């Protein structure tokens, strides 16, 4: 097929996801309520108790609300990635996903289009949140709001690929909603989103080790450094590698010849 056909397919998948997002206003509000509660309520209460000493990429001592904004950006993308995968389970139950997957386009391309659409939605949510944080007084260098974009794209693909991989193992919508809670909250709280790794290590070395192995930690640090016009090569390498592995596993899982979709279909027939 021609490049124009691939472009038309990409435009159709992205447009469908954006229209769904526009029509589901409650989803947009819910995506902002969670990080705003942390920023306005918890950060205000923890400001004195959890002030952050000078550490990279910051050039001076910072308030707690300044530190957690990149982590809350990661929270938005994490929840949106799982929400997009939840919609895949719903589409599969309703039959619309089957129509998409039997199209003549390669399945890997369709899944990447779906990931890109979900990532674009999360980026819109992130920038709305950053505007609110800016008005609240948490300000980053202006160029940082541009440099953060590639980090948001990579992080969006990573959490989206994780959600897509999980969705391949689940047949019912209710089951996936439960699995989301067992994935989202450990990934978020066992990371550097809310507390620096050095402070976690002071409290519990075991939790520190878990956080250091959590790929979401490096996604948050990649976003943090980019937001303050710095580049964290180690974090970027880990996030890109994790994204490649998760995306490859998701494509394999949705492969009708070898993936979990075929196994579940066979189990259902039995």
Estimate the mean pLDDT confidence: 82
| Count of individual beta strands | 0
Largest sheet: none
Category from helices, strands and their pairing: mainly alpha
SSE series: HHHHHHHHHHHH
Give the end-to-end Cα distance, rounded to a whole number of Å.
37 Å
What helical percentage do the residues reach? over 70%
How many structural domains can be distinguished in the coordinates? 1
Shape: globular
- The helix tally amounts to 12
| Unreliable runs | 265-270
Strand proportion, as a percent range, falls in under 5%
Rg result: 19 Å
- The protein's oligomeric status is single chain
InterPro entries: ABC2_TM, ABC2_TM_bact-type, ABC_2_transport, Alc_ABC_transptr_permease, Nod_factor_ABC_transporter
Family: Belongs to the ABC-2 integral membrane protein family.
Pfam families: ABC2_membrane
Domain ABC transmembrane type-2: 26-257
Keywords:
270 residues, mainly alpha, globular
Describe the structure.
This protein is an all-alpha fold and 270 residues long. The chain has one domain. Helix content is 78%, strand content 0%. The protein has 12 helices and no strands. It is found in: Cell inner membrane; Membrane. Keywords: Cell membrane, Membrane, Transmembrane, Transmembrane helix, Transport. Residues 26-257 form the ABC transmembrane type-2 domain. It comes from Litchfieldella qijiaojingensis.
Topology of this protein?
Layout: H1 3-23, H2 25-46, H3 64-94, H4 96-101, H5 107-136, H6 144-167, H7 173-189, H8 197-203, H9 205-213, H10 215-227, H11 233-253, H12 260-269
InterPro entries: ABC2_TM (IPR013525), ABC2_TM_bact-type (IPR047817), ABC_2_transport (IPR000412), Alc_ABC_transptr_permease (IPR022403), Nod_factor_ABC_transporter (IPR051784)
Family: Belongs to the ABC-2 integral membrane protein family.
Domain ABC transmembrane type-2: 26-257
